Amino acid sequence: GQQVMQIPQYQHVQEGEDFTTYCNSSTTLSNIQWYKQRPGGHPVFLIQLVKSGEVKKQKRLTFQFGEAKKNSSLHITATQTTDVGTYFCAGKGRDSSYKLIFGSGTRLLVRP
Amino acid sequence: SQTIHQWPATLVQPVGSPLSLECTVEGTSNPNLYWYRQAAGRGLQLLFYSVGIGQISSEVPQNLSASRPQDRQFILSSKKLLLSDSGFYLCAWGGGLGPYGYTFGSGTRLTVV
Q: What is the full DSSP assignment across B21-82?
């Protein structure tokens, strides 16, 4: 079945440093979504990428979708303590428009 | 606007007891609904999804079942809980057409003792 892997599992950075998490799918995706889950909270939708090679930005966050639509990345520039949380990628395979399969997540800790 | 309600927030249940978690959605009709489980410090595992009343797809064979008795109601159940059923259970509404992600409920933290 479809699998989505995400690395690293944890990242501990100093406030102001950059952060990147990477997502890889075992199959080609129709789209990829990114979510943020604050400690003790539930996942909150950030963005969706659909096109091959697509790049989208939200303030200090930059999202990329690979050319083959099998990998994606999230880059945060100059992290802040408010960025703390777990970031998940989630993908829908081409053969299933109903199921969103989540990666294992990257937990970001920011030292003030 | 669409909202999703999930309850209870926390639950402590003995092994062998039954379980019923309820999720309701407001502000939309015929939503795609999902149950996910998250083990401590782990990712989200898709358990069940439903595209309509009475339609349930199971992703992982296990000790749980799901039902959709009404358009905007999705229920997760178990007849006899196991210790391994402990986790954070999240109901989600699929965002429909367009670039919309899933909207998650606030979750139920279940501890089986």
A: EEEEEES-SS--EEEEEE-TTS-EEEEEEEEETTEEEESS-SS-EEEEEETTEEEEEESS--
